[in-house]
Amino acid sequence: MAVWTIAQLVAFLDGVRDDRLFPLWWLAALRGLRRGELAGLRWMDLSLETAELVVERQLVQVDGKLVASPPKSAASRRTVALDRQTVRLLRRHEHDLRRERSRRGEPWDDSAGVFIRQDGRTVAPDYLTYRFLKLVEESGLPPVRLHDLRHGAATMVLAAHVDLPVVQGQVGHASIVLTADTYTSVLPELHHRAAEATARLVISAARGTARKVRRGKCGWMTQV
What we know:
This protein has helices at about 5-15, 20-30, 35-40, 85-105, 125-140, 145-160, 165-170, 175-185, 190-210; strands at about 45, 50-55, 60, 65-70, 80, 210-215, 220-224. The chain has about 220 residues and is of the alpha+beta class. The chain has a three-stranded antiparallel β-sheet, with no helix packed on it. The protein has a two-stranded antiparallel ribbon with strand order 3-4.
């Protein structure tokens, strides 16, 4: 599993801000949807008023054709909360698509895909993979897969000290054990923060009992 640092992710998003699929890359990076879920997302699955989206289906390719199917598992059928910036991006994206459809003389269709190509065709999962890899290559950043944005989204949530069950619900894992095994080992910062937090706890307790921790010749020593 390869995960970009936050600085690398910011650099990527800044470099693709003018890409037609920028809201999709943003959503993948911050909310961790799978590529099939992103391709299958419809406007009727979004509630920008309540800042939520519902994952109810995914698009898969069967014999060269796009087929809508249920999510990967029962747990993958989920409601995902959206932040204010993501809502703003999706509103702007909706405005742009409404204007495109109006120019083509097409009525708005809530059952249409949120993310489409320039000619109005649905984006296929394989196309998303191809496009993402091309953008990463152009960015000069360390190579990662589109699926790795999903991993990065989960680790960032963990780094923000969000409880593991919340992360499990966001990514749609059936088991919290899978979530823990998958993600808590890929962000070294979490382990460093845990070490610092443990040390602070001990030092705070020592101060509370009138003990001082000082640096001695052989390492840390405690003196009454």
